[in-house]
Automatic annotation (TrEMBL):
The lineage of its organism: Eukaryota, Fungi, Dikarya, Ascomycota, Pezizomycotina. This is homoisocitrate dehydrogenase. Belongs to the isocitrate and isopropylmalate dehydrogenases family. Residues 7-388 form the Isopropylmalate dehydrogenase-like domain. GO terms for biological process: isocitrate metabolic process; lysine biosynthetic process; tricarboxylic acid cycle. It comes from Knufia fluminis.
Length: 392
């Protein structure tokens, strides 16, 4: 069998991105040769440190290389709003005693996170975030029952088209009051392709569950839940809902169970009975909220992977940020990145390779001997990575 060769871009970015991306690379290099895969790598630059050095948060060369050379990539983390020194006057925020998150007062002139630009320039229209609990002796699960679900978030439109305007409120005679408006744009094209991806994911998960011999006790396996608010937003969310329904009624999705749920009741049920769900597909804003909510149900940001998917390249990305509080200590949990390698491989149509990684990660967490401090352990990033490799 001829080896399939794949080229992977490595974009560590900032903070712990530089500690977890090498772990992801090592995992790829350690995949069993019996899979018949060969990998080559190219190091690429992006993020805040890159901005300081080069003046660009996402250099053209990075985008060009990803487009022309790479089948996949791993993206570490970038600072959203760089943490300025506390004596910096632009960092003063009277009501905020916590470390700055993304308040406008911490913006650095000319810098904006490259993630949005990267998604645009590479047509990465779906953000896929699997959230899975593995019961651990060192780390209590936030949910009573283990969860295993995926949020599939549309990534190009909805309120994120960022078409906003502010104008004087005509009902106010003083002329001081204002009105702000934002456009929520939903297209049938984007709704169709995101629902189609969700359907493919549900089919693949069902197949992988059955192939791995996992007990498929949940009636949920192979289920897609379409999330919307069409009872209020009958045109925008109405279009999302009807198009998603249509896409998921294609004959090759016959084996799937399709449900829909209004987003507010979705949140309620997600918190009460998260084990019910398999694949959830949502427009951009609801997907954003549901993704972070679901990540919280797993318990540590260090565990949750994601993939950015579109027409070409697939980019795996841990869902955590640059974590400046633990940067440089060698204790960042590499599992979010290692699982992101798995999700990337799944989308490259290499589910067997992904499964090797998932099983090794699950076994590492379940044993709980070599885990990082966020999971109640004392192991380093490197020790966890090596333990997972040993299990592969
Ligand atoms: P950014 O602005 O880059 O998002 P942040 O300060 O919001 O940075 P996050 O990366 O979002 O930090 O992390 C939030 C919290 O979760 C931090 O306390 C961080 O230490 C913890 N955390 C995030 N990722 C990991 C990881 N891989 N391993 C262990 N802890 C993590
Ligand atoms: Mg953050």
């Amino acid at each position: 069998m001829a080896a399939r060769s794949l080229r992977i871009g490595l974009i560590p970015g900032d903070g712990i991105g530089r500690e977890v991306i090498p772990a992801g690379k090592k995992i790829i290099e350690s995949l069993p040769s019996s899979l018949g895969l060969s990998f080559s790598f190219v190091d690429l630059d992006a993020g805040f440190d890159c901005f300081k050095r080069t003046g660009a948060a996402l250099p053209d060369k990075t985008v060009e290389t990803l487009k022309k050379e790479c089948d996949g990539a791993l993206f570490g983390a970038v600072r959203y709003a760089p943490h300025l020194p506390s004596n910096d006057p632009s960092n003063h925020h009277p009501t905020n005693t916590n470390p700055p998150q993304s308040s406008p007062s911490t913006k650095v002139a000319g810098y904006s996170s490259p993630i949005v630009a990267m998604r645009k320039s590479l047509s990465l229209y779906a953000n896929v975030r699997p959230c899975k609990t593995v019961l651990s002796p060192t780390f209590p699960s936030p949910t009573k029952t283990p969860i295993d679900l995926v949020i599939v978030r549309e990534n190009t439109e909805d309120l994120y088209v960022k078409e906003e305007k502010t104008y004087p409120d005509p009902s106010d005679p003083t002329g001081k009051a204002q009105i702000a408006e934002a456009i929520k744009r939903i297209s049938s094209k984007a709704s169709w392709r995101i629902a189609d991806i969700a359907g493919q994911i549900a089919l693949r998960r069902d197949k992988m569950r059955k192939a791995s011999g996992a007990e498929v006790s949940h009636t949920k396996s192979g289920m897609v839940t379409i999330t919307h608010k069409s009872n209020v937003l009958s045109q925008t969310d109405g279009l999302f809902r009807s198009t998603a329904r249509e896409a998921l009624s294609q004959p090759h999705f016959n084996a799937l169970k399709i449900e829909e749920q209004i987003v507010d009741s979705m949140v309620y049920k997600l918190f009460l009975q998260p084990e019910y769900y398999d694949v959830i597909v949502a427009p951009n804003l609801y997907g954003d909220l549901l993704s972070d909510g679901s990540a919280a149900l797993v318990g540590s940001l260090g565990l949750v992977p994601s993939a950015n998917v579109g027409e070409g390249i697939i980019i795996g990305e841990p869902c955590h940020g640059s974590a400046p509080d633990i940067e440089g200590k060698g204790i960042a949990n590499p599992i979010a990145t290692i699982r992101s390698v798995g999700v990337m491989l799944e989308f490259m149509d290499l589910p067997e390779a992904a499964e090797v990684i998932y099983k090794a990660v699950d076994a590492n967490i379940a044993e709980g001997r070599l885990v990082t401090p966020d999971l109640g352990g004392r192991a380093t990033t490197e020790e966890v990575t090596n333990d997972i490799i040993r299990r592969m």
